[in-house]
Design a protein that fits this description.
By secondary structure, this protein is α/β, with parallel strands linked by helices. The chain is about 45% helix and about 15% strand.
């Protein structure tokens, strides 16, 4: 039997958000008889602990956590540290999760035949990313066709959507009822969920603007906002956006209908409890993990026509797609869904079937394994 081949994963993002959750799902789904998994992170934390629980070898490496293009020396230093680690573990391929990790990884393998698989997590691909990847016999992967649009060389870029953990597909309605009981929400009360980091680009203020209109027809409706502010930033230079949102909700007279749940590790329970997910992004995303997770549990979504979202939600089949920043249309579509239980059931069933055909963790892992095998063989040849 061929011995397991080492793969070094690199993630420079300190925030354990959707990016880290997606990486963790992949690490837990790869064939460990074929691959020996190593993970380089800038610090210990929830992602490191969760990866270690999967028997992934975790290495703390001094990596910049934000794109340091004004100080390129930091990237070169990070590349040198990763080069030493790659040599130490004997890696056959480096999987870079995100932009900073990608550039640092390319510097780490310079003048070697070690390929890099670069998972680009921004909405678009810069030409330099494709050019650099081509020079390393590697691949650039993105989560949606929207994210791949405009790439100079589609032969290098591959669309590989993230996987959704099995617990979302397996979550029964009872776990949703348990979540409602935890938050003292009646089983028949309308409940809307938003799952997002708290940032202006996510359209949370726009949704709050729609809430008074929604409550006119659904006075018993409640909203869960699940997620926290980005970590790893200088809090002195960033507004407490959660406080901004609370103040805005209070000014609209809807604060008593909104609960800021914070970060949770049981998002599958909360999405199952909700009647629908609203994802009101104002700026493009390469892949909306919360939408994929909602579809996996059978909860329909109302999303904006931005970035990858129209690619992920089939308007009128398993969800609704509306224009961004249009409070009246958003309230109308959400209200229509809350008022029509049979429509939600039909769309939810269609969403679950579609999610299982596109976003399973096992399918995601098999796609990546195929890419690893190809770039390793190409580098050896």
């Amino acid at each position: 039997m061929t011995s397991a081949r080492p793969i070094l994963f690199v993630d420079a993002d300190p925030e354990f958000g959707s990016r880290g959750r997606s990486l963790l799902t992949l690490l837990g789904s790869l064939d460990t008889e074929r691959y020996r998994l190593h993970l380089a992170l800038p610090a210990r934390g929830p992602l490191a602990e969760a990866a270690a629980a999967l028997r992934v070898a975790v290495h703390v490496v001094d990596l910049p956590t934000r794109a340091p293009f004004r100080t390129p020396g930091l990237l070169w230093q990070a590349g040198d540290r990763l080069r030493r680690l790659a040599r130490h573990v004997g890696t056959r391929v480096v999987h870079a999760n995100g932009d900073v990790a990608g550039f640092a990884s390319l510097l780490a393998v310079r003048n070697t035949r070690t390929p890099v698989v670069w998972h680009v997590r921004d909405a678009g691909i810069a030409p330099v990313q494709v050019r650099r990847a081509r020079s390393r016999s590697a691949a650039v992967i993105v989560g949606s066709h929207h994210a791949a649009d405009g790439a100079a060389d589609r032969a290098v870029v591959q669309v590989v959507p993230d996987g959704v953990p099995d617990r979302f597909f397996d979550c029964a309605r009872e776990c949703g009822r348990e979540a409602r009981r935890e938050f003292e929400i009646r089983e028949d009360a309308p409940l809307v969920a938003l799952v997002s980091r708290l940032a202006p680009s996510r359209g949370l203020r726009a949704f709050l603007n729609a809430l008074p209109l929604l409550l006119d027809g659904n006075p018993d409706a409640s909203v869960w906002i699940v997620g926290g502010e980005p970590e790893g930033v200088d809090r002195r230079s960033v507004e407490d956006f959660a406080a901004v949102l609370r103040h805005h909700a209070a000014s609209l007279g809807v604060l008593d209908r909104v609960r800021f749940v914070g970060r949770r590790d049981d998002v599958h329970r909360l999405l199952t409890a909700a009647d629908l997910l609203v994802h009101p992004s104002r700026e493009p995303e390469p892949f909306a993990l919360a939408v994929a997770e909602a579809k996996a549990v059978g909860t329909p979504s109302v999303v904006t026509s931005v970035g990858c979202l129209p690619e992920m939600v089939r308007d009128g089949i398993d969800g609704a797609v509306v224009a961004a920043d249009d409070a009246r249309v958003l309230a109308d579509r959400v209200g229509t869904l809350l008022a029509d239980h049979s429509l939600r059931e039909r769309w939810g069933d269609a969403a679950r079937i579609d999610a299982r055909s596109r976003w399973t963790a096992a399918g995601h892992a098999r796609s990546l394994e195929s890419i690893y095998d190809r770039v390793i063989a190409s580098a050896a040849g």
